[in-house]
UniProtKB/TrEMBL annotation:
Residues 30-229 form the Fumarylacetoacetase-like C-terminal domain. GO terms for molecular function: acetylpyruvate hydrolase activity; metal ion binding. It comes from the Bacteria. This is Fumarylacetoacetase. Pfam families: FAA_hydrolase. Keywords: Metal-binding. Gene3D superfamilies: Fumarylacetoacetase-like, C-terminal domain.
Length: 231
């Protein structure tokens, strides 16, 4: 069969590297879990009790490779960092049972959810979606993925982020309100999950603003690290 003739150039499929391999992980969608650490919920002025999880999305082409230098985002003077563990799915479906959820995980990585906080505050006040605050260009720095078959399924371990060498966020995965199997199971009731989906699993307390020239570095114990520089 001949290749299809597109009327415009077809978009490149966003990918993440796989640690220890030349293979690439193709990214389908990016889901983010909001306020999944109690201490972060408190610092953002919300109830830390175990309410049903909520989600928002970034776009796959918002990903930017670890080690990159990126510009300070436009239209904002208050951009915040949020370190997160990334869950990468190798398979999906609807209404996935909690006890079967980890069967769908390919591996794990480390990412930063960059947020134009001033724009988000305006959207919140108006009751509007967060897209312009969360899903803008280069808003999802990410490192390589490590297969679960090599490291298992992390449920505890340090998660941290430093700015110019000064540690700003320092928590533990065991502080997550909603655990990875619960995230996957809940998401699958709202969406048909697909191979290539990523889940940014939430951030601990300590989020804050950054300025041009800042170097962000963060990691998750046993998973990996991510680093990004602002021009």
């Amino acid at each position: 069969m001949a290749n299809p003739a597109y009327v415009i150039p077809a978009p490149v499929i966003p990918t993440l590297p796989v640690v220890g391999s030349d293979a690439l992980f193709p990214v389908h969608r990016i889901y983010c879990v909001g306020r999944n650490f109690a201490d972060h919920a408190i610092e953002m002025g919300h109830d830390p009790n175990r309410e049903p999880p909520f989600f928002f999305q970034k776009n796959p082409d918002n990903l930017v490779a670890s080690g990159s230098t990126i510009p300070y985002p436009k239209l904002s003077s208050d951009v915040h960092y949020e370190i997160e563990m990334i869950v990468a799915l190798k398979s999906g479906g609807d209404d996935i049972p909690v006890e079967k959820a980890l069967d769908h995980v390919f591996g794990y990585g480390v990412g930063i959810d960059l947020t134009r906080r001033d724009l988000q505050a305006v959207q919140k006040k108006l009751g509007r979606p967060w897209d312009i605050a969360k899903a803008y260009e280069q808003s999802a720095p990410a490192g390589g993925l490590v297969p679960a078959e090599k490291i298992g399924h992390p449920s505890a371990g340090r998660i941290w982020l430093s700015v110019n060498g000064d540690v700003k966020q320092d928590g533990d995965l065991n502080q997550m309100i909603w655990k990875v199997p619960e995230m996957i199971a809940t998401l699958s009731t709202f969406f048909t999950l697909q191979p290539g989906d990523l889940i940014f699993a939430g951030t601990p307390a300590g989020v804050g603003p950054l300025v041009s020239g800042d170097v962000l570095k963060g990691g998750v114990a046993g998973v990996g690290e991510v680093e990004i520089t602002f021009a």
